[in-house]
Amino acid sequence: MAVVLIGSFLLSMPFVFRNNPNNEWCHVGTYMDAFFTSLSAMSLTGITTYPDGLVNTLNGAGQVIVLVLVQLGGLGIVTILTFLFSIFRRKLQFKDRLMVAQAIAFNNFSEIVRFVRRLMIITAVCETIGFALGLPVFLQLFPNDTPRALAYSIFHSISSFNNAGFDLFNSTNSLIGGLFANTGQAIESTNWLYYYFNIYNAILSLLGGISFLVIIDAVFENRNPRRWSSFTKIILVTTIGSILVGSLLLFFTDGLKSENPMSIFQVIMQIINCRTAGYSVYSQSDLSLPGRMICAVMMFIGGSPLSTAGGIKVTTVFIIITSILSYFSGKRLAPFKRTFSEMIIAKSMTTVFLVLTIIIIAFVAVGFFGVTQVNGQSVDPKLEDNLYAMYLFSVFSFFGNVGFYTGLEPFFSIGAKIVLCFLMLLGHLGPMTFFQLFQNNLDKKASVHYSFVEEDFLIG
């Protein structure tokens, strides 16, 4: 929160805005918009409430501040500090290792420094490769402005790998219809570079959201796939399965509809971006109601633990599905020859129940506070016809740190923005980490020397 406040202060200053001849503080919007953008960057949600979008509101200095916040949010401040301490050969004491382990949810104290170094290496390598892959696109977009092409490639590589979803294309259309720069240049959606950009973007976001532990297990340990850990296998199976199932369902709901159907490419990109990347290749307001529900479920699930993704995480869903199948089959299942404790099952169920409860309350609150006029402009009439459906979609989008732009964001009232900020924070910290702020006894069993009589009763 301290970093978010510093970021919001910097994003309020006169030098970060375009077209600000009078050097006004908060030249566009209010301080709430600056705070919202700062938290959105730090939580890797990747959306702003500025009417003209990020690139038309903030200049190069403002964009650098946003990019630094994204990188801090992706790696984590504790991770970066640990890496710096290890460079200067400062030995981490046990209490320091414990703090780092809790901050990044890693339980091997002896390997913590090695793990953090690997995490930094993975990030640097992936973002560098992303930068190199992006150069053909941006050199084509800015053929006479190489420095701008380099800057754009760096920005989008970091934004994509960290699943932030910020882009520097024109206004608020994200990647819909092509890559339109605010200088007037464009790469139309019929150009092969448009598909190339989306595909490598999707791969980067998948790498960022797949969990650093999976990459370490698959790459650094140099193991045969059969010897990968059960955690790695669960992540890969659940991730691939959710993308395939989500794409198939969305194709049937929106790919086959009579009016403005989605192409297969748009369907796949939409589902991948639902995992918290948040880039739009199709207008979210044009989704059908069933399609919107499918996307909401994908955003709710999110990515993997120990990654840059949000949501309740695919491992939580895997544990719940396994428990349900175990109940109906009448025997304890052991996927990948592993069983799971009752504690982790209870934790998964609790996570889903509490998060759904919070999302329902947040939906009611956003509906209560609603939207307002901005600079004399009102919400698009097309959105007003489905206002509450879009509210619900936005609530799931902000909790999952996805940040799909719906067109409502600039018009949300102050109260609604505060509720959405809370959801971004909850999604980024993770439900269990967030709940530990208020309850220190999570994952702990009280020591008692007696037990009560067990009794069954009717349910369902």
Q: What is the topology, as strand order, of the major beta sheet?
A: 1-2
Order of helices and strands: HHHHHHHEEHHHHHHHHHHH
Give the count of helical stretches.
18
Low-pLDDT parts are none
3D structure, described in words:
The mean pLDDT is 87. This protein has 18 helices and two strands. The chain has a two-stranded antiparallel sheet. β1 and β2 form a beta hairpin. The chain is globular and about 75 Å long. It has 460 residues and is mainly alpha-helical. It has two domains: 208 residues, no CATH class; 217 residues, no CATH class. 57% of the residues lie in helices and 1% in strands.
Features:
460 residues, mainly alpha, 2 domains, two-stranded antiparallel sheet, 18 helices, 2 strands, 57% helix, 1% strand
Short account of what is shown:
The chain has helices spanning 2-10, 31-42, 60-75, 77-87, 94-103, 112-141, 146-161, 192-209, 212-220, 230-255, 264-274, 289-301, 314-329, 342-369, 381-384, 387-399, 414-429, 431-435, and strands at 178-180, 186-188. The protein is mostly helical and 460 residues long.
What are the SSEs and their pairings?
Blueprint: H1 2-10, H2 31-42, H3 60-75, H4 77-87, H5 94-103, H6 112-141, H7 146-161, E1 178-180, E2 186-188, H8 192-209, H9 212-220, H10 230-255, H11 264-274, H12 289-301, H13 314-329, H14 342-369, H15 381-384, H16 387-399, H17 414-429, H18 431-435
Antiparallel strand pairs: 1-2
